[in-house]
Amino acid sequence: MAFQPIIDVASRSIFAYEALVRGENGEGAGEVIARVPPEQLYRFDQTCRVAAIDTAARLGMKTRLSINFAPNAVYEPATCIRLTLAAAERCGFDPRQLIFEVTESEKIRDVPHVVRIIKDYQGRGFLTAIDDFGAGYAGLNLLAEFQPDVVKLDMALIRGLDGDRVRRSITSGIVATCRSLGCEVLAEGVETLGEFRELRDMGISRFQGFLFARPALEALPQIDPALWDQLDAAGEA
Asked: How far is Cα 68 from Cα 100, in angstroms, rounded to an integer?
């Protein structure tokens, strides 16, 4: 597992780490998941959850831990969450620190099933998120079905938006919609101070991306103290 920090610029702190699966030779999550047969998705999903929790506990993570789950894996949420909670208890990791993300970039075959999972997790007090929002398949239709705690803007949507009026307009519209629904917006894939500045001006305070830290294998990347000053200055510019 690799981990990438999600920062909160308002408190100048790391809010959470997202767990990212990697292959034996460093392959990214997309390449790894593409090799998983459909009938093995549930087992793969469970293996990744346990590995993420085990590693986070071993590394002494004190923040929230954000875990992706496979939207097309067929399982019952109550059974699935029992295994997750058992792993957390065994490792001594506080399960209240878990965030569950469902990706919007993968076409969901059974939307009502995924909605049931999300609502079950929400009912248990876990934070939930839509990952890669704006990447393509469900978009606003998925948001209309359920309102997660967090909506993570896809990097393709925000790439270069500081120099692109259309992207700024679309992004600000999404931010306004999410705000009216009570969903926090998190910008992921941020790579430049210009992108950060525009997003900060829209009222976003939580970010993820190479500008802040790259994912690290079996480690918890920290934020360079000098970067906080740069971000403060960019936000005030």
From this structure: 6
- Rounded to 10 deg, the angle between the 77-91 and 41-58 helix axes is 20
Closest CA to 118 of 177, 53, 69: 69
Residues 124-174 have pLDDT tens digits of: 889 999 888 876 655 677 788 888 999 999 898 999 999 999 999 999 999
Distance separating alpha carbons of residues 121 and 100, to the nearest angstrom: 8
Quick count: other Cβ atoms within 10 Å of Cβ 174? Answer: 21
* CA diameter of the chain: 52
The rounded distance, in Å, linking the Cα atoms of 199 and 190 is 9
pTM: 0.92
Q: How far is CA 107 from each of CA 22, 69, 100, 110, 233, rounded to the nearest angstrom?
A: 22, 13, 18, 9, 40
